[in-house]
Amino acid sequence: MAPHFSDNPPNNNTITAKQPQNHLLHRSLANPPYMVESAQGINLHLSDGRTIIDACGGAAVSIIGHGNPEVQDAIARQARVASYVHTQSYTTPVAEELADFILEGTPYGLEKALFVGSGSEAVEAALKLARQFHFERNEPQRIHFVSRKQSYHGATMGSMSVSYNLARKVPYQGFAYEHVSHVTPPYGYRYKVDGESDELFTERLLQEIEDEFLRVGPEKVIAFLAEPVIGATAACVVSPKGYLAGVRKICDKYGILLILDEVMCGTGRTGTFFAFEQEGVIPDIVTSAKGLGGGYATIAAIYVHGRVVDALRQGSQALNHGHTYQAHPISCAAALAVQKIVRRDGLVRRCQEMGDLLEKMLSKELSKCSSVGEVRGRGLFWGVEFVRDKKTKETFDPAVGFGAKVMQAAFRRGVAVYPGAGTVDGLRGDHVLLAPPYTVTEEELAVICAVLRDAVLEQEAVYM
């Protein structure tokens, strides 16, 4: 069985039969999560009196920090006006304004926005829209998706099917959508062969993609799905130059859509509002979530290129998909307030500037850590991959849970980082992620990096 890892820091206060239990089903039945009594800025205040620096933004979510009064007021105002409408019959000014605000000027040809409740829902909607696009164009034979190994796209059955996070798929073998295949990720640290340049690596990966389209039958492929910067599964992997642009050309050659999943890496997280802006590529559909609402409400989105919308206009004139809570007014109000703050305060630019600083700090603080194989990322989205041997890139025994132990050691010192396992191939490898708010200060970054260094050195003393 593939190793399992939790998104939450383990609490060593294991529940016993003698302890009272509440009725909330937590992610772990063995290790209850810590109780957060309040949160402000980058800090989480726990019920045991400790204050934790939220250096990962929960899961790269809290882009403006916690407790912002402008967002709180916007939520309260909307709740007084209209807390819910059903979008089959109604819309609201705040939902319309949010879509217009984000897609002002139809950036990169993205014409329409659909707001849903989570990143998984957004990916599910993108998959269905991509299929409907081809159906409307009288190509019903297109039923296949091509994605990448070491990808994560969501927890619903469809989004999990196109993902390659093996640990999360273990109990659901046989449930998945069957018309999916996966190709090699643009993960140079692990997948380049000896002596291979970035250019040759890119060329090889692009040839593999085209070969996979031809194997399946390009007339059967709906879309190619990818994260512009790979997130939690492989720790902030940035594609080599020209890779995504090359993917776009191959997709165009065969009439295949390009879906870019920016649930984790988008909305400014990598230093531009859309992560794909740095790749010289224009997608057909983009998914967004986490940073969209900044954690103040459950909201996600898909942004749709005009040519995809045109297929619906010229066909059924309807999107054959919907959710009860899509474009929820309170969620839209929260997201609109967050995004207005981001734009007004120049926080995307600040994210890039602080990200440059974070890269330098990480390089300095972790330079003497013998377990740090690679530090990689963009903006304020950085991953640290751990190895037992830097020369051979040998991983730690998965049973050790090295990344999780680093996370626990950092947490004991008052800093929360995001752990991951199965980094290399779903079975082997460890990493942690850093994704602090765009409002993080230089002083806070210094504390985060120093604590991470000490946590790594502590675990190296035990396991190396």
Count of runs of 4 or more consecutive helical residues = 14
Task: List unreliable stretches of 5+ residues.
Answer: 1-10, 12-18
First-residue to last-residue Cα separation: 25 Å
The portion of residues forming beta strands comes to: 15-25%
CA gyration radius, whole angstroms: 22 Å
The helix-and-strand class reads: alpha/beta
Helix content: 25-40%
Cofactor: pyridoxal 5'-phosphate
Family: Belongs to the class-III pyridoxal-phosphate-dependent aminotransferase family.
Protein name: Aminotransferase
Keywords: Pyridoxal phosphate
Key structural traits:
464 residues, alpha/beta, seven-stranded mixed β-sheet, four-stranded mixed β-sheet, 14 helices, disordered N terminus
Report on this model:
- This protein is of the alpha/beta class and 464 residues long.
- Residues 1-10 and 12-18 have low confidence and may be disordered.
- Helix 13 crosses helix 14.
- It has helices at 57-60, 69-81, 93-102, 119-136, 157-162, 166-169, 188-191, 198-216, 243-254, 306-313, 329-344, 347-365, 402-412, 442-463, and strands spanning 36-40, 43-46, 51-54, 110-116, 144-148, 180-183, 221-226, 229-230, 237-238, 257-262, 285-288, 300-305, 372-378, 381-386, 415-416, 418-421, 430-434.
- A hairpin with a 2-residue loop joins strand 13 (372-378) and strand 14.
- The protein has a seven-stranded mixed beta sheet with strand order 4-12-11-10-7-5-6, sandwiched between helices. Strands 1-2-3-15 form a four-stranded mixed beta sheet. Strands 13-14-17-16 form a four-stranded antiparallel beta sheet.
- The two termini are 25 Å apart.
- The chain has 14 helices and 17 strands.
